[in-house]
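In full, the data.
>
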Amino acid sequence: MRSIEHWIDGVRTGGGPTLPVEDPATGRPVGEVALGRRAEVDAAVSAAARA
């Protein structure tokens, strides 16, 4: 199963909560995506401000 994490400022972040992703045609799980927490949002905004 595929897991998609956040990339912030060139660094992979993870370890937080995830959301399962299902194939809409079959209902079968196909992966999971990372949910951003406050720390990830703050880091992304900070990185964007420096870009």
The chain is about 25% helix and 40% strand.
